[in-house]
Amino acid sequence: MNQQEKEIRKKSPVQIRNKKASFLYTFLDTFTAGMVLSGTEIKSIRAGKASLVDSFCYIDKGEIWVQGMNISPYFYGSFSNHPARRDRKLLLTKREIRKLQEEIKNPGLTIVPLLVFIDEHGRAKMDIALARGKKEYDKRQSIKEKEDKRSIDRVMKHY
Predict the structure, then answer these.
(1) Domain chopping of the chain, boundaries
(2) CA-to-CA distance for 86 and 50, rounded, in angstroms?
(3) Are the C-beta atoms of 29 and 92 separated by less than 8 Å?
(4) Which of 2, 34, 71, 104 could cross-link 91 (Cys pair, CB 3.0–4.6 Å)?
(5) Which residue spans traverse the membrane (predicted)?
């Protein structure tokens, strides 16, 4: 990810994060994928009404899908409103999908959605990561590092 891509994510008015993912997984490689959405889905995402809690990605017949992502029905929608939790197709190149497919054959690896954002052209994008689950002692170490950082910040705040 280059500097320009990082700035686009920072400027995005919508940033829906999977906060639990960094606690539960160690990220090995990240990708940015487009999303295939209906009209009311993109409107709900632009309103910030989406969640990545308990969502994951899988590969089926050479296509990558995200399952468990919740996009709330659009408030001003009509009879053509979308279902909140349906599988949504992600857009990656064939080479990237083949690479992911080969990697997830290894035990302990999975594909995790990290962030949904709106790019400079108004399209919804999703950052996904090839990830390995953390062991219990890794999680404890993450908690300890966070607590140490907070205590240092508190001390520095008083000076």
Answers:
(1) 3-158
(2) 12
(3) no
(4) 34
(5) 21-39
pLDDT of residue 95: 95
> What is the C-alpha separation between 151 and 75, in angstroms, rounded?
42
Phi-psi region of 73 (alpha: psi -120 to 50; beta: other; left: phi over 0): beta
* Through-space distance between the first and last CA atoms of the chain, rounded to whole angstroms: 36
CA 33 remoteness from chain centre: 10
pTM here?
0.77
Contact partners, residue 94, CB within 8 Å, separation at least 6: 62
- Mean pLDDT of successive 10-residue stretches along the chain, which has 159 residues: 67 82 88 89 87 91 92 73 81 94 92 91 91 82 86 81
3-158 has CATH 2.40.280.10 classification:
yes
Of 3, 6, 86, the C-alpha closest to 38 is 86
Q: 110 vs 91, 98, 128, 141, CA distance in Å?
A: 18, 14, 10, 22
Q: Which of 106, 8, 2, 116 is nearest to 69 (CA)?
A: 116
Q: Which residue type occupies 81?
A: N
Write the single-letter amino acid at 61.
K
